[in-house]
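Figure 3 (text version): structure tokens given as input.
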């Protein structure tokens, strides 16, 4: 078995992350709310052995796509990763946490993954495979660290605009559904949760509404139409450990950690929440 190395923006800074070996992971970590949307796939994470590519394909509800082992023979085609997906082949490293979590998102939220791939391919067609524009960087950041949040109380969105973290994370709003995580999209975020206690930051697209499925569908449609993710600055940072119940020590001193719950930078502005379709 091999460890996975990748880089992702998080509250603890950008640095190489080395995922633990499969046998070193405590299955209890998959009880964290980050994984709530993936309960139907939890057996793929907790089994003693790595799931085979065929087992992943059996769970994929995208008839025109399949996971294929990323090996030297596959890479010899010289295609861009995104171009290959557009042709129906999702390159997947075997015995690799990062790619296994990516597979789970394909299973759970295929519309989001298809939308991200289509937009990436559009930019590749314009710029070629060797250049990356701000929109591609935003698409990748959402793919790796993305969270879809739905909000129905405008006051909470205003608190978020100001980085007023005590107001945003006041338990009452989360308990009554005025704000909620509709979906965790970022497979790198999930990979980092293999190590308990990490203070991670989701990069969010926000929908005004009260239904999780509708919020996810709205974001998929907005990505497809090019209405969001023109630049990484559009993504709202959300310190995930501040969400009530997502960290064991959420007192005032914890929320006062300015290196994690960062103040608003001067001049920083966020786009309004997407409106759910009527």
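Below: residues designed for each position.
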């Amino acid at each position: 078995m091999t460890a996975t190395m990748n880089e992702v923006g998080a509250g603890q800074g950008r640095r190489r992350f080395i995922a633990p070996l499969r046998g070193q992971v405590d299955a209890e970590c998959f009880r964290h709310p980050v994984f709530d949307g993936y309960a139907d796939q939890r057996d793929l994470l907790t089994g003693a052995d790595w799931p085979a590519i065929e087992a992943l394909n059996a769970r994929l509800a995208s008839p025109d796509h399949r996971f294929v082992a990323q090996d030297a023979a596959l890479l010899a085609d010289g295609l861009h990763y995104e171009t290959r997906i557009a042709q129906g082949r999702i390159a997947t490293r075997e015995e690799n946490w990062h790619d296994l979590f990516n597979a789970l998102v394909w299973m759970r939220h295929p519309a989001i993954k298809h939308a991200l791939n289509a937009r990436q391919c559009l930019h590749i067609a314009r710029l070629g495979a060797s250049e990356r524009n701000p929109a591609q960087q935003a698409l990748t950041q959402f793919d790796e660290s993305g969270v879809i949040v739905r909000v129905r109380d405008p006051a909470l969105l205003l608190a978020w605009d100001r980085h007023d973290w005590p107001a945003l994370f006041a338990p009452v709003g989360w308990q009554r559904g005025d704000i909620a995580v509709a979906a965790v999209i970022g497979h790198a975020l999930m990979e980092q949760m293999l190590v308990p206690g990490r203070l991670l930051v989701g990069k969010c697209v926000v929908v005004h509404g009260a239904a999780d499925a509708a919020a996810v569908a709205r974001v998929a449609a907005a990505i497809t139409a090019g209405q969001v993710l023109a630049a990484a600055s559009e993504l709202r940072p959300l310190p995930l450990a501040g969400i009530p119940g997502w960290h064991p020590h959420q007192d005032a001193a914890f929320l006062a950690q300015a290196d994690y719950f960062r103040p608003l930078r001067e001049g920083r502005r966020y786009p309004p929440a997407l409106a759910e379709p009527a």
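The beta strands are 5-7, 16-18, 66-69, 89-92, 146-151, 179-184, 201-208, 236-239, 274-275.
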